[in-house]
Amino acid sequence: MSSPGAPETLDPGADSEGLAPAESGSDIAARSPLELFWRRLRRDKVALTALGVVGFVVLVAIFAPLIVKLFGTPGPNVQNPDLLDDFGLPSGPSSDNPMGVDERGRDVFSRVVYGSRLSLEVAFIATGITVVIGVTLGMIAGFYRGWVDTLLARTMDLMLAFPVLVLAIGVGVACSGREGCLGGAIQPGRGVVIFVISVASWPYMARIIRGQVLSLREREFVEAARSLGASNTRIIFREILPNLIAPIIVYSTILIPQNILFEAALSFLGVGVDVNTPSWGQMIASATGIFDIAWWFMVFPGLALVTTVLAFNIVGDGLQDALNPRTSK
To answer: Going by fewer Cβ within 10 Å, which terminus of the chain is more open, N or C?
Structure first.
């Protein structure tokens, strides 16, 4: 038995993934990439547990009305002044209100459950827009190079240098009217938040994809396709894009928790999201003034935010290890 601080040893005939000789030869060669991916991910118990937490949060967001009805709590915007004391302070957790109420007598449990909807909706939509823009521009810049690469690279630098909070506040004020802005393309509320997050995030994705494409375009399989007369469009979408799936998946999984925190930060600042819309960030902002006497108002949405972000980050790390055999644990 090795000492606690000694590095773990593998069988002499084991491969780089720690598999027995019987499993590292023709048996591995016969497996599909998806089977190998699942096999590596299945060994990461922490990532699987985090994946279960992510699945639970997604189900809570989808079935929020049913969950609130099942627990018998009032809706997220139902105000009950009777739950405030003579000084207007909210009451704590009870059998009728498992997580207490806020300063307006609204049930915190219902608002936390409905807040998961806003956080995941904004995060997934903003991540999807970021991936589409970033992957497209990154592939164009990395493949064609020249003045196209220079123009797109300088645009990325400009976007990365622009103060995000200034942009968020400016867009939030400009689009605060009923008709929004840009001809109604950006609607007030979550539309503003999604727009700001997408604009601020796509340069990071584009830089990663550009770097990958700069390496892939010089590989032998690209040269072979070009020698066979394949067009640039075919090379990009049939040869290069399939090799970008793994980094796209990994970075998208990392982007989702970042965007959840981004939405919470913007809601905390009062940008975009309406005050009556349940949001974890907005709940935390509202609780700052009464946290010392109403701890539940900040603790429960804060725990929901931290748990969700941590779970997504762990899943992202697990996917990176499973998709890249060189980092297999």
So the answer is: N
Residue 120 structure tokens: 């995941």
CB neighbours of 141 closer than 8 A, spacing ≥ 6? 148, 149, 152, 153, 206, 210, 213
Token pair for 161: 């240098």
> Quick check: helix, strand or coil at residue 206?
helix
Asked whether 251 and 205 are in contact (CB, 8 A), the reply is: yes
Side-chain-facing half-sphere of 152: CA atoms under 13 Å: 26
What region does 53 belong to: left with phi over 0, alpha with psi -120 to 50, or beta?
Answer: alpha
In this structure, is the dihedral angle defined by the CA atoms of residues 8, 12, 15 and 20, taken in order, positive or negative?
negative
Distances (CA, A) of 167 to 45, 105, 110, 176: 41, 34, 32, 14
pLDDT at 328 over 70: no
Tokens of 152: 């797109």
- Residue 111's nearest CA partner among 285, 282, 311 is 282
**For range 317-325, the mean pLDDT:** 76
CA distance 142 to 165: 29
Paired tokens of 99: 């997580």
Tokens of 132: 């589409």
d(CA 151, CA 249): 27
pLDDT tens-digit map of 51-80: 999 999 999 999 989 999 888 888 888 877
User: What average pLDDT does this structure show over 151-176?
Assistant: 78
Phi then psi dihedrals of residue 146, to 5 deg: 60, -145
Cα distances (angstroms) measured from residue 292 to each of 267, 299, 303 = 21, 11, 17
Tell which residue, 250, 241, 255, 251, has the closest CA to residue 322. 250
Distance (Å, rounded) from C-alpha 108 to C-alpha 177? 29
Alpha-carbon distance 158 to 150, whole Å?
Answer: 12
Residue pair 189/274 in contact by the 8 Å Cβ criterion = yes
3-state secondary structure 28-84: HHCCCHHHHHHHHHHCCHHHHHHHHHHHHHHHHHHCHHHHHHHHCCCCCCCCCHHHE
